[in-house]
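Sample intake sheet
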Amino acid sequence: MEQFILKNYTLLTHLVEFLAAITGLLVLKKYKNNSVKYFICFLVYLFICDSLNNYTRLIKNNGVLSFLEGTVFEKNYWWSTSFWKVGAILFFVFYYRLILKNEIFKRILKYAGIIFLIVSVTHIIQNWEYFFSRFFPVISIMGAIIIFLCTAFYFFEVLQSDRILSFYKSINFYISVAIFIWWLIITPIVFYDIYGEYRDLVYIELRRYIYLFANICMYLTFTFALIWCKPENDEY
């Protein structure tokens, strides 16, 4: 079983990503007048970008992209950092500014997103050679802080309103719980990525188990919520 999971890690991840994305497209009509339509577009974006993230498989063994071997694009750290560690954070800033009602919370997220983008771009430029060979802890930690801000503001608003009576029917509740738990689980791993650089096989296998578990839980939660929940009256 362990070998099956490790061998099919990428396939299993893509399956749950695809399930969430295709479910979103199938129920898109239900959310066409709701901010959730942007979240569905985001799920499709993640599936496409993560699929492209596997271009490295076409480099080895004289693949069609073998001409990239020995170049800075041989590894996909740059792509993962761009579409997920930076791109996903900026999306959630945008999304939560749509669903939150409190103008102060919206303003805080707006400036937090701007600061995050400026710091991320500056850090990448200053450490350009590492952009293609490793992830940046600073970007990961700042991204996690913003996710915690987004979800904390949302939960606080729910607790302060009558939505607390039907929170379990809200898709945004499930989205918030899923991304909060995902970043809570994954963020600490960034401090141990040095073991991956030294090809510590025990660490690499453990890291894959953690990522796979977190991904499956998050995307299955998204899939369930898209099907079970009803659109909320959150016009923006």
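Comment: Residues 2-228 form one domain. The chain has one domain: 2-228.
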